[in-house]
């Protein structure tokens, strides 16, 4: 398949690497010159690491790199079978990007969004072919994490959901079809991991480093604060805010003032540890 990915940030480049390693051709688009360059270099470095670890032959690298085309505009998606939108977690930006992708995609192709929280219903109403639209939610790091949530919107067709499931399987992922409810499944559960940890710190009952150590001590791979840093403190706050708003300001999902301050200051929770 030829897959178009719009947004070459943390998620877009990880999905792109996963797809080329699984034999797909990828067109990766970003508005930022710097991000496009960084994404190409990152994919190349990840392939080098795989070669060092003897998971890949050095002879395979040129062929894999030739499967990745990086472009500055979604008009490059004109021959793609499926497109994945992976731009910032802002509904207005996603609506604009999804509409511009739909305008150039072949009429038989599938359009998806990697949104963490925004309702598929609310995005689909702006599209001409809502039946061919669904959520395709990868997890970070996208080339490593096995789970992909396939989100069925109220207007997604069975064929669209099946094609998303088939794509996930072709990427060596484990797809889970989820309903279009705020935060879907994983992020709804995960909000409590982040929010309660921040409440503990705001009450001065503990500090981020200690909370992370303790949670890893009982078996979590990462503590809540280092996980928020990996995701991006700002992206994580956008997801919490979006989920809280969609649940009509449900108190247990209330975003934390601590996180807002970290975003305003451009800080990570693990800075200075
Ligand atoms: P990011 O901020 O790393 O990357 C977003 C990219 O989109 C940036 O490079 C930006 O230049 C680009 N962009 C913005 N407007 C654009 C436009 N109009 N056309 C083309 N490119 C544009 O964000 P990240 O973390 O990759 O997140 C992307 C999406 O994936 C969000 O919806 C997020 O909620 C979701 N997601 C993020 C996860 C994470 O751990 N960071 C995990 C799972 C989903």
Features:
single chain; N-(1-d-carboxylethyl)-l-norvaline Dehydrogenase, domain 2; binds 1,4-dihydronicotinamide adenine dinucleotide; 47% helix; 2 domains; 273 residues; alpha/beta; globular; Rossmann fold; 8 strands
Name the structural class: alpha/beta
User: Going by CATH, what is the homologous superfamily of the largest domain?
Assistant: NAD(P)-binding Rossmann-like Domain
Q: What compounds sit in this structure?
A: 1,4-dihydronicotinamide adenine dinucleotide
How big is the Rg?
19 Å
Strand order of the largest sheet: 3-2-1-4-5-6-7-8
Roughly how many Å apart are the termini? 44 Å
- The percentage of residues in β strands lies in 5-15%
Based on Cα principal axes, name the global outline. Answer: globular
């Amino acid at each position: 398949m030829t897959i178009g990915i719009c947004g070459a940030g943390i998620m877009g480049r990880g999905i792109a690497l996963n797809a080329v390693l699984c034999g797909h051709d990828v067109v990766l688009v970003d508005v930022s010159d710097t991000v496009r360059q960084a994404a190409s270099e990152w994919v190349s470095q990840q392939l080098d690491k795989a070669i060092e670890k003897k998971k890949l032959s050095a002879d395979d690298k040129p062929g894999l790199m030739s499967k990745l085309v990086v472009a500055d505009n979604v008009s490059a998606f004109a021959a793609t079978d499926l497109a994945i939108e992976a731009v910032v977690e802002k509904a207005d930006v996603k609506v604009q990007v999804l509409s511009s992708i739909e305008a150039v995609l072949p009429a038989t192709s599938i359009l998806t969004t990697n949104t963490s929280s925004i309702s598929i219903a609310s995005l689909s109403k702006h599209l001409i072919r809502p039946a061919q639209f669904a959520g395709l939610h990868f997890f970070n790091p996208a080339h490593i994490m096995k789970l992909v949530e396939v989100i069925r919107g109220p207007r997604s067709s069975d064929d669209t959901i099946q094609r998303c499931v088939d794509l996930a399987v072709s990427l060596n992922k484990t797809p889970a079809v989820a309903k279009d409810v705020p935060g879907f499944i994983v992020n709804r559960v995960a909000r409590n991991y982040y929010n309660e940890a921040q409440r503990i710190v705001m009450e001065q009952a503990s500090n981020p480093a200690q909370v992370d150590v303790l949670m890893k001590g009982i078996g979590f791979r990462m503590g809540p604060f280092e996980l928020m840093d990996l995701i991006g403190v700002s992206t994580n706050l956008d997801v919490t805010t979006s989920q809280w708003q969609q649940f009509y300001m449900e108190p247990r999902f209330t975003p934390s003032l601590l996180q807002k301050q970290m975003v305003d200051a451009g800080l990570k929770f693990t800075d200075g540890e």
